Amino acid sequence: MTSPLTRRALIAALPAAAVASGCKGHAQAPVQTAPVPPLKAVAQFPVGTCISTGKLGDPALVGLVLRNVTQVTAEWEMKMEAILRDDGGFDFTRPDAIAAFAGQHGLRLHAHTLVWYAQKAPAFQRIDGNKPALTGAYRNYIQAVAGRYRGRAVSWDVVNEAVKDDGDGYRECLWSRNLGIDYIPDAFHLARAADDQALLFLNDYNLESNPKKRRTFLHLAEALLKSGAPLQGLGTQTHLDINLQPGMVTTAMRDLASLGLPIHVSELDVSTRVRGLDLSSPQERADRQARLVHEVVEAFMSLPPQQRFAITTWGLRDSDSWLQLAPNPPGVDLPLLFDKAGRPKEAAAAFVAAATGR
Ligand code: XIL
């Protein structure tokens, strides 16, 4: 059983320079740790992050990516919104650029995502209710996109966020309305037919904080496996916040691993924004974030090696996070392992500490 990392244990794990400069109780920017080794150098599993073509023009970010990770996920440019034109045609410019970057730098490419309820592509919206047309377009889209990256994408999030937020069943969406719940296994079979190499994942979020949702997610995974659908991995997005109680990540990881499939911590970030009255100091928020990152990595390290697909953070620098986007106030949340200048935070030191068994 993993005992929650105490502040004292965490500080013991930090480089001395980081501790010396920390002044508890003073409202100040969280302690910046001394340089940490490249995450990919100390991890006994692939380390990934999300990228987008717009950020690849920033040499500082590209340098941080190449120093720390061996895998990338397209943050949004391998989604329907980036590929499917309103006239129903395909534009692969953006996803091809992501795949080219990965190939150019010898990075594994985790493709995200073929089917997601949140994508309201006009070309599909237009045929909502026309089951024959939508069935054909669905098949055509998955075959074309999964087929295009065969041999270049090591894996796919085939279906993203299929479970209702409250965990009470599965989301009603364009796909379920027209194709029934079979849209889920159908997507896996179609992806497998188009790409016989990529590992095919089911991906979802709040699986740590919501045990009921986690049970429904696992029930879906088991049903897919029993039906013969080529499900080969489970993605837990792991978008956490610092209020999550110690131990919940560990319990969730154990449950998710119970099916024996590879586990992808697919979109790790730890929001430091506390809703409502927040009396904590920046330092305390940084400590709580680091403790949770340590728990994620420690729980992941407790998996058998063959189940450690990757840990992917949803960005590297706080300033690159999706949590800076509207409606969130920019610059308030500090959810990632590196600060806006690319300097490692306590969370980065905690990642390294847990990855090296400290
Ligand atoms: C987010 C991206 O980070 C944003 O840039 C985009 O505008 C919206 O999507 N869960 C997912 C991801 O599976 O695809 C989402 O990514 C974040 C939540």
Q: Topology as H/E string?
A: HHHEHEHHEHHEHHEHEEHEHEH
The overall average pLDDT, rounded, is 92
Terminal-residue CA separation:
15 Å
Count of individual beta strands: 9
Please state the structural category.
Answer: alpha/beta
Number of domains: 2
Strand fraction equals 5-15%
Rg to the nearest angstrom?
20 Å
Main sheet, how many strands, which sense, barrel?
8 strands, parallel, barrel
CATH topology title of the largest domain: TIM Barrel
Write out key terms for the chains shown.
alpha/beta; TIM Barrel; 8-stranded parallel barrel; 9 strands; 39% helix; binds (3S,4R)-3-hydroxy-2-oxopiperidin-4-yl beta-D-xylopyranoside
Which SSEs are present, and which pair or pack?
Layout: H1 7-13, H2 16-20, H3 39-42, E1 47-51, H4 59-68, E2 71-74, H5 80-83, H6 93-104, E3 108-116, H7 122-125, H8 131-148, E4 155-160, H9 174-179, H10 183-194, E5 199-204, H11 211-227, E6 233-236, E7 239-241, H12 248-256, E8 263-271, H13 282-301, E9 308-313, H14 346-355
(3S,4R)-3-hydroxy-2-oxopiperidin-4-yl beta-D-xylopyranoside binds next to loops.
TL;DR of this structure?
By secondary structure, the chain is of the alpha/beta class. Helix content is 39%, strand content 15%.
Q: Describe it for me?
A:
It contains 14 helices and nine strands. It has helices at residues 7-13, 16-20, 39-42, 59-68, 80-83, 93-104, 122-125, 131-148, 174-179, 183-194, 211-227, 248-256, 282-301, 346-355, and strands spanning 47-51, 71-74, 108-116, 155-160, 199-204, 233-236, 239-241, 263-271, 308-313. By secondary structure, the protein is α/β, with parallel strands linked by helices. The longest helix has 20 residues, at 282-301. Mean pLDDT is 92; it is low at 1-28. The protein has two domains: 28-55 and 238-358, TIM Barrel (Alpha-Beta Barrel); 70-203, TIM Barrel. An eight-stranded parallel barrel has the order 1-2-3-4-5-6-8-9, surrounded by four helices. The two termini are 15 Å apart. Bound molecules: (3S,4R)-3-hydroxy-2-oxopiperidin-4-yl beta-D-xylopyranoside. (3S,4R)-3-hydroxy-2-oxopiperidin-4-yl beta-D-xylopyranoside (XIL) binds next to loops. Residues 75-76, 160, 205, 237, 267, 322 line the site of (3S,4R)-3-hydroxy-2-oxopiperidin-4-yl beta-D-xylopyranoside (XIL).
